[in-house]
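Lay summary. Proteins are chains of building blocks that fold into shapes, and those shapes determine what they do. In this project we predict the shape from the chain. Here is one chain we studied, written as its sequence of building blocks.
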Amino acid sequence: MIALAVIGILYGALVALVQSDMKRLVAFSTVSSLSFCILGIFGFAVSGLDGAVYQTLNEGITVGALLILLGFMYERYGTYEIAAYGGLAKRMPRLATLFVVTSLSLVGLRC
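And here is the predicted shape, written in a compact code that computers can read:
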């Protein structure tokens, strides 16, 4: 299981790097980060299990918020393509701010 978790971490991260679709990027990023939870669970230590539960809860809340914000962006732009979101801060400054804060909280969970 540890080997599968490491494969999941690497596969999710590498596939997320090449995505041009924002929703798919979030999905593969989530696969990668939740593979860290599997690694913690199968480390057979109490701290690994505690960290896995904490990470799963945080990931669920943060990714849920990020997907809601992506839904708002889809309603406005009609696409999930990253290249189409240029000038987002000009058109929707509050949404862009919330998106940055949510993205940074998601990045902060992985450190």
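What the prediction tells us: The two ends are 22 Å apart (CA to CA).
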